[in-house]
Here is the input.
Amino acid sequence: MRGYVELFRLGKTYDTHNGPLVIVEDFDLNLAQGEYVSLLGHSGCGKSTVLTMIAGLNSITTGGVVIDGREIDGPGPDRGVVFQSPCLMPWMTALDNVMLGVNQVYRNATKRDRIDLASYYLNLVGLGSILHKRAKDLSQGMQQRVGIARAFALKPKMLLLDEPFGMLDSLTRLELQEILLEILVRDKVTTVMVTHDVDEALFMSDRVVMMTNGPRARVGAIFSLPFDRPRQRADVLEHPEYYEYRRKMIEFLEGQDHAKIKNTRERDESKTSEPADLSLSSP
Ligand SMILES: Nc1ncnc2c1ncn2[C@@H]1O[C@H](COP(=O)(O)OP(=O)(O)OP(=O)(O)O)[C@@H](O)[C@H]1O
Here is the structure.
């Protein structure tokens, strides 16, 4: 199946002081237009590495990424990125922070139209009344809302989210998840989100991609979720299959844990046996 977004045999090798280290290898995934896919896996397995390669912010070692028929080569306005922390210009207002990107991408639009576009998305994320407040005076949750508005205002084909709610308190996190889903359904943006949170992945996604532990991480399992859209949190939580999917995902992660412990033990045993072998073979 060809997808609107295709990741084909995507791989990343970092140069380390111990030599090249293959973090991600043969990562294959197709996404339909408007689909929401989460990447779930243990810390350090390579989720952000995959996401930043799609964003064009991290060079691709092998394979490639095709979006809407074109292979990517670096970052572009067709992909909006939201990180855990939005990195706003602290001295600029919420509106001006969003305008920075809008001015770049919509150079030919009138100033009025550009302001309207930025204000529209700031309104959608609930910041209509503080457009002119400086970023440094906003709470972390408000700053993250500005980051989300900034990404949507460029009308990207794809949205790439790297633990976008990771630094927020739980109430703000739940509220922003819902706001984000509402805008995504409205704008039909194809989305990849990195998360550690099984419940967040279940609530937000159409499919959840489980990554194996690195090095040489790849797609380990894919869960296609049966929850309708638009979706309400209560309906998802009450869905008869919710806890079965949740259990299977946790089981997958625990399976990766056991594999890791087994590999580490085998490596340690072979390390401790080395001196004995050497002493046996020494003259
Ligand atoms: N520039 C780099 N050079 C060398 N190794 C790197 C580099 N960037 C990341 N790594 C290593 O690659 C591995 C994967 O990192 P990555 O941040 O993609 O994992 P992750 O699954 O997103 O982790 P987390 O869930 O903790 O954010 C880690 O072991 C990390 O130390």
User: Anything to note?
Assistant: The chain has two domains: 5-78+158-240, 86-155. Helices lie at 47-55, 94-105, 111-124, 140-153, 170-187, 198-204, 233-238, 242-281. The pocket of adenosine-5'-triphosphate is lined by residues 14, 16, 23, 41, 43-49, 196, 214 (CB under 6 Å). The two ends are 62 Å apart (CA to CA).
